[in-house]
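WARN no homologs supplied; continuing
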Amino acid sequence: MKALLRNAGILAAGAMLWCLLGQTESHADGAAEIRAIQLSIASAAEARNLDAIMSHYLAGEKLFAAVAVNPLYQTPEVALVNAGVCVRGTGDLVDAERYFNRALAIRPNLPEAMLELGNIAFDRGDAAQARDIVRRYLAVNPPTSETLWLGFRAERKLGDATAAAGFARRVQTEFPNSAQAQMMRSGIDR
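OK structure emitted
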């Protein structure tokens, strides 16, 4: 039984590597090597790199989806969020949302899934939905700089300067060394 549980964990780790780092190559001597994808705008192989990245996102999604349905894997909601992140990397927001919502069906207050859905809503131009997700998130999870940053951007886009200032203040006071606080100090509000 322990070996089976370990194999489920190995499958999840492999999915993460495929999605985020690159691929594993087997050698004649049986050793495996993990290659990270090298991104270079100046590279003549840029198109091949992009194709490789897309194929790794898709391979990662497939592996995470397999992990999520493995009855021996104890946290399928985490695998579903990771599959959603992989799919979102391909630009498919509809399928990404499906994965995040499936994760929330298993664990309704899962912070990563909530934040991902909020960011998708904001990226789609639905600042009101993003704001609502941030409010629900903060009602059940501790704040993060990313969540407060999303709240700031949503409120600002909705024209509520007071609420936006409240989120900005919280980012600056609760997470002063975060990337979000640094962006605020430098005037970046993307």
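Strands lie at 22-26, 32-36.
OK
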